[in-house]
Design a protein that fits this description.
Type Iii Antifreeze Protein Isoform Hplc 12, two-stranded antiparallel ribbon
């Protein structure tokens, strides 16, 4: 082997050593990063903005992987946590789903049943009623004769709201030719049998059904004579 060949061999060996050194350096960096980042776990991100107080579905969220050490303790890692829950605030696109964003959907108590009615958006405390609220349900009935006055009645006091649906456009009845489409919201209440019957009767026969929102945690107490009203009562005062 002449001198030129020896130099070539030496250069090849040096190149191999440099490559091994570089490879070892990369492995060292990767190992250091892994030691700092740690293993990844599953989390979920909001796909599109979700309105508050709506039932949640798995399809509204996308699965992502995130380093475990960067994940907050209250992050949701299993979508079974959505069962029976609603969003307590508006969930924005791209937000990481966390359990403090969720609350239990109001449930029925023993002896109660669900009943849903359509409430006019303008007369039903539009946009303010949420699941868990208490409301008084008012119904206005026309007089049965020309001499009988129309009467407004509290048909159910302290009705518990358990669900608020989406705003829906309703076409007017055939008799209301001059009226345009109205907007209503399906609202579901948890009521006992007697109160459910009162609500069903009012929806069928009352001219209007309205809701009065009560303060949080405050129940209405009606004194004798406060359950109904007509204009003659003001004239007699």
């Amino acid at each position: 082997m002449n001198a030129r060949q020896r130099r070539g061999v030496i250069l090849i060996l040096l190149s191999v050593l440099c490559a091994l050194g570089a490879f070892a350096g990369v492995l060292s960096v990767i190992g250091d990063v892994n030691s700092k980042v740690g293993p990844e776990v599953t989390a979920y991100r909001v796909k599109t903005t979700i309105e508050p107080y709506r039932p949640l579905e798995a399809g509204q969220f996308e699965k992502i992987s995130i380093p475990e050490r960067w994940l907050s303790e209250n992050a949701v890692t299993d979508l079974s946590a959505l069962r029976g829950k609603i969003a307590v605030t508006e969930l924005h696109k791209g937000s990481l789903l966390q359990d403090d964003m969720l609350v239990d959907r109001p449930a029925l108590e023993s002896g109660q049943q669900e009943i849903a009615i359509m409430i006019d958006a303008e007369t039903g405390v539009a946009g303010k009623i949420r699941p868990g609220n208490l409301v008084n349900i008012y119904a206005t009935f026309a007089g049965r004769t020309d001499r009988e006055k129309s009467t407004s009645r509290v048909i159910v006091a302290n009705a518990k709201v358990i669900d608020v649906g989406r705003l829906t456009s309703l076409e007017p009845d055939a008799d209301d030719r001059g009226a345009g489409p109205t907007e209503a919201v399906p609202i579901t209440f948890a009521l006992n049998t007697d109160d459910a019957q009162r609500v069903a009767y009012a929806e069928s026969f009352a001219e209007h059904v309205r809701l009065a929102l009560l303060p949080d945690g405050s129940r209405a107490t009606l004194r004798p004579g406060e359950g109904s009203y007509n204009l003659d009562e003001d004239k007699n005062k």
